[in-house]
Amino acid sequence: MSATRVSLTDWLRGSAVYRSIVRHGTADTNRNRSLVIFENLFLHVHPVKVREKTLRFSHTYWLGGVTLVSSLVLIATGILLMFYYHPSVPQAYRDMKELNYVVDNGLFLRNLHRWAAHLMVFAAFLHMLRVFYHRAYRPPRQFNWVIGVVLLIVTLFLSYTGYLLPWDQLAFWGVSVGTNMAKEAPLVGEKIRFLLLGGNVVSENALLRFYVLHCVVLPVAFLLFLSVHIWRVRKDGGVQGPPSDTNDPRGEEAP
Amino acid sequence: MSATPELHAVESTDPLAVPRRVALVRPDTRPAVRRIEERYVMTFPHLIVREVILFQVVVIALSLVAVFFDAPLEGIANPIETPNPAKAPWYFLGLQELLHYFPPIVAGVLLPALVVLSLAVIPYARINLTAGPLWSRGGKSTALALAAVTAALFILFGAFGCWPIAVPTLLTAGAMFAARGGATGGRLRRALARVTLPEWIMTWFVVIATLLTVIGTFFRGPGWTLVWPWSGTI
Amino acid sequence: MPLRRLFAASSVLFLLVLAISPAKNALRSYRSLQRQYRKLGSSRAHSLKAAQSYQARPVAIRQIWLRDFDNRVDRCETCHLGVADPLMAGAPGPFALHPGTPHTPEAFDRFGCTSCHGGQGLATTQADAHGTAADAGPPMTPPAFIEAGCGRCHLAENVTGAAVLSRGRALIARAGCYACHAVRGQDTFRSEAPPLATLPLKTGGEWLKRWLKDPKSIDPNATMPNFHLTDQAIDELSHFLFAAQVPKELAGLIEAAAAEPPGSSANGKKLVSESRCITCHTVEGKGNGSAPELSKIASTSSRGWLLAFLREPQAFNPRTPMPRYHFSETESRDVVAYLEDEFRDFDAPKGILEPLRVNQSLAENGRKLFRLYGCFSCHDPAGSASEKFGPELDGIGDKRAQSLDFGRRTDLVRTLPAWLAAKLESPRSFADGLKMPSYGFSADDSRAVVTALLALGAQSVPERYRYAPPQKPALLPGGPVGSLIQSYRCLSCHQIGDRGTDVSTAPLTYEGSKVKRDWLVDYLMLSYTLRPILEERMPVLKMPREDATQLADALQNFYVDPAIPADPFAGHPASDADPVEGQRLYVGLGCRGCHILGSSGGYYGPPLTEAGKRLKPGWTYAWLKGPQRWRADVRCPDYGLSDTDALRLTAYLETLQAAAPAAKAASVARGAK
After folding, report:
1. Of C267, C322, C258, C259, nearest in space to C290 by CA
2. How far apart are CA B27 and CA A135, in angstroms?
3. Interchain contact, B30 vs A133, CB within 8 Å
4. Contact, C313 vs C321, CB < 8 A?
5. What is the per-residue pLDDT across C499-527, written as a single tens digit (0 to 9) for each?
6. Which end of chain B is flanked by fewer CB atoms within 10 Å, N or C?
7. CA B168/CA B170 separation, integer angstroms
8. To the nearest whole percent, how much of chain A has pLDDT over 70?
9. Of C25, C61, C122, the CB nearest to A97
10. Contacts of residue C168, Cβ cutoff 8 Å, sequence gap at least 6
């Protein structure tokens, strides 16, 4: 029984198709383990070896990771939700009800999207605080900190634009309150609000604009900045943990 | 790169490396110059497995929440029926709470812009790179300056009746003074004594932001009056 | 290696957690209900084929798409599977057949479920559909108020088959709610409450204070609600009301009447019993109750005022339903003499009708109170601005419980019906400073009123589903005839077109096609009882002959219905008009069971002894062809008579010309008891 299974695995791994896809052997040697990383588009953002210290929980608390995972969950559930959603009045609200009552797992999907969004905003805040208290913004990472701030703002806007889409009372009034704040900016405030809402009040135009921002413009911006953010972490030698000795401004372990 | 007294000599600590390497560094330059021999591990599987576990744990947690708690959905948007209070999403409730104390242009534009700007310039401000513990130099002048700034802020925010900012300002200042000379005290005081000025400022900001958000989320009822979260009128 | 074990554990947990939602989805309760329904259906089915068709029903969400109602969708049938299935009569749980109503089972596809029941049609879980879960949308209308659903489309006050709703609407109109609260279609509502200008000459300070304290305790028929005024407020209001300037000519009338010599109480007694006052008023609780109780009237109003009012009621209150009786000067003195003798409160203190000596500063406070409590809404509607005193009621039936202000009433269930019922029962209990008075509705009345209020929805019912009964043109001529109809207040009891009330069973809309002129003139001058079992009978208005002829002629000329033939026999062979055959039919059909003829017969229907003198043959014929067409709730059976039979019966009834002075005298005597 077990012999058959082993041979089946071996046969699979030996097949031409498998070998054409995974071009290295079982990852049981350091050579092959290295190949796993740099033969893979997605993994090769990592170096082949990492400092053991960075794997410790207290090094980063994995907060950037949590933010990233929530954003992946959001992209996955968001794409599925787009299949059921019409950015029009009153169909948008009706679609929420259909998700609740008719679509299989629709409510779960929506819940997951909603809670993941909250988690992402929250984790991003914590991530920023962690980086600050670990003083991980120091050279050469200054600009990556700025990109992080931009990512935080994009995340807030993603969450905010998504807030309107269900077109319920919460959404409508939440967005009305928010955009009324934008109005107060001198000179351009009214214009920005008009541009954002496609009118002077929250209406179907605003819904369409928020939808396009939420599903296209902001995610694309987010992914662009995210790529740069992660790429720079890699370039600057991996994640930066706490300074080794906070008493000594020089005491900083090298990456 | 003129020679200043702040330059420090850093030596390689590897006893086997001959000759020894010595470097002169300024405190604000990249720390990468000091190389410590470290253990390295293979990214695969050590990091990758951890990342997958992280992914799974986050998804598990989110799914459990999603199974047991439904996302809120109220009646269809109705421009005629204004809910009282009309609240923004939670991460903007700190701002909305500010709106209660300050004119809209201050709370809605000035303060948020100031916060974003301050965040963005953090890595470029020298103090963030060089600051040592607040009281590292004993510092009578530090104490004076701190007292003056605290008093000014307290009076400013107090004048607007904005106690959720004024009171934490006072408390933070209190903690800062408590840290003075703490290097010889207990563990907590020793930890406080190590905190730098930028860290004190950030802590002050975080406490205020959290407090404002919590008040805005849970303690505001019809007409933005103070209510208890359990009074059930939200 | 712990990491490996952690990885294994998290992977297993990951898969398990992701399976929860699909599992939950597969176990949704409607699926098991539909499987139960299959079993139930196939066990109840009469044939194998029917049983198989139950078994073959797919498990699926079922819905009714209501194109006309905003494209609404009702999914109630997903669980309520048997609503339109006759096999499911008396079936358990959610599967039962819907009880028969005028719209079911045929019209499910037109109206769906939520049109009548409320609730959330889109939902597929019980809690959300019925609205019992928090935040789940509008809750269903509780069964006790189910007729509110009828009222969403049926806009008339009286809705056949919806007794509770109709009563609720009537109570709302009678209580005068529309005077303070705006409701669509009731803009022209005017309260019948009297203007208060003649009050200082009508009653006394003591009586007024008692009245303001609690009107219903003074007169159970009072429509005025209890404002729960403090003694001080009552005092101030009384001073304000007594400070009113009585209009000169009314004051003159009252003072002149007060100076007249007393009349004969004995004759007054006879006149009062003839006049059938209790058709509207009550005497010690007996009577219709739509007008004030009379047993203590002489301790309520001064003699002069009573006399003047009896002669010219409409001069005192242009909106009073009271007709003007044509008593002679002496007769009216006699009537009032009788009232003064017998209809007084013998326990009342002596000075109950003493006028109040006005204190100006109290009166000034009273004036403010009069405005504060919105008294003008009923008592001086002309003086109030177009703005209504109270909040608008349109859309109240769709208010969400969360948006209601329960104030201090933490004891209440947080539902709209409970809120409305509490608002009616003790409106001031919600917060301080509320002004709505209490109406003392009984539990049943309150349920009816709440039902009618719940029918005031905000959700739009499509125009073509809104059903107001066809507007019968209300032909109300101006000129002398019009003022006669006004003065005799025909519309206080009769209907003309869609105007008037249904105290009388005889609408005047087609009276000209129904009764013969000469009979009508006599009847108007001295009306007698046609239907002895009814409490409400035509009052004897003492109409002078010229008024009676003028009215009868107008009725003959204007109030005709083209569907009633002038001569039903025209175009039919003479054999059809055979009264002998008709008499045989009369006996055969058992008409005697309800109708008096000569000295025998039942009391339910009107006597037919002089049918030929009273009724036009065209009317008789049209009635016999289908009584319900003329009065929907009439008990006279529709025998489905052929033309020939109907004509023969008509011909027979036409022969019944015998005046029956004995019967007439008897009925008059009965009225006089």
Report:
1. C322
2. 13
3. no
4. no
5. 777 788 888 888 888 999 989 998 888 88
6. N
7. 5
8. 93
9. C122
10. C447, C448, C449, C450, C451, C452, C453
Q: pLDDT band at C231, cuts 50/70/90?
A: very high
Judged by CB atoms closer than 8 Å, whether chains meet at A184 and B35 is answered as no
User: In terms of Cα–Cα distance, which of C136, C175, C111 is closest to C453?
Assistant: C175
Q: What band does C67 get if pLDDT is binned at 50, 70 and 90?
A: confident
Task: Answer yes or no: do C532 and C431 share one domain.
Answer: no
C-alpha C450/C-alpha C165 separation (Å) is 9
Give the domain-ending residue among C495, C527, C558: C558
Listed by start position, the domains of chain A span: 61-235
Task: List B residues 43-102 in contact with A (Cβ-Cβ < 8 A).
Answer: 43-48, 50-51, 54-55, 58-59, 62-63, 65-67, 69-79, 81-83, 86-92, 95-96, 99
Is the omega angle on the peptide bond into residue B45 within 30 degrees of 0, that is, cis?
yes
Binary contact (C124, A102; C-beta < 8 A): yes
Q: Name residues whose C-beta falls within 8 Å of residue C445's C-beta, 6 or more positions apart in sequence.
A: C167, C171
Q: Percentage of residues in chain C with pLDDT exceeding 90?
A: 32
Residue C346 inside a domain? The answer is: yes
Q: How far apart are the first and last CA of chain A?
A: 49
Task: State the ipTM, two decimals.
Answer: 0.90
- A chain contacts of residue C125, beta-carbon cutoff 8 Å: 101
Is C51 in contact with B98 (CB distance < 8 Å)?
A: no
d(CA C258, CA C329) in angstroms, rounded, equals 13
CB neighbour list of residue C354: distance below 8 Å, 6 or more residues apart: C204, C205, C206
Distances B163 to B211, B215, C241 between C-alpha atoms, Å: 11, 12, 55
- Cβ-nearest to A108 among C21, C75, C128: C21
* Residues C635 and C514 occupy one common structural domain: no
C270 lies in some domain: no
Contacts of B81 in chain C (CB under 8 A): 403
Instruction: Answer yes or no: do C366 and C246 share one domain.
Output: yes
Residue reference for tokens 């704040």: A181
Name the residue facing C25 among A97, A98, A104 (closest C-beta): A104
> What are B100's two structure tokens?
């209660």
| CA–CA min distance B170, chain A (Å) | 22
Does C288 fall in a domain? Answer: no
Distance between CA atoms of residues C586 and C639, nearest Å: 12
pLDDT band at B83 (very low <50, low <70, confident <90, very high): confident
Q: Which of C515, C658, C644, C663 is nearest to C584 (CA)?
A: C644
When pLDDT is averaged across residues C32-57 and rounded to a whole number, the result is 93
Contacting chains of B (3 CB pairs or more, <8 Å) are A, C
At C96, list the tokens.
Answer: 């039962």
Q: Does C405 touch chain B (CB under 8 A)?
A: no
Nearest to C232 by CA among C361, C362, C352: C362
Task: Provide CB contacts within 8 A for C419, sequence distance 6+.
Answer: C401, C404, C406, C412
What range does the domain containing C447 cover?
163-182+389-465
Q: A61-235 architecture in CATH?
A: Up-down Bundle (1.20)
The answer to whether C345 and C296 have CB atoms below 8 angstroms apart is yes
Q: Which of C383, C352, C362, C373 is nearest to C243 (CA)?
A: C362
Q: Are residues C496 and C550 in the same domain?
A: yes
What CATH number has the domain bearing residue C598? 1.10.760.10
**Final residue of a domain: which of C533, C558, C583?**
C558
Same domain, C393 and C520: no
- Cα(C502)–Cα(C563) distance, rounded to whole angstroms? 22
Residue spans of alpha helices (H) in chain B: 48-68, 93-101, 104, 111-121, 126-130, 140-159, 163-178, 187-194, 197-218
Contact with chain A for residue C25, Cβ under 8 A: yes
- Tokens 């898969």 found at: C15
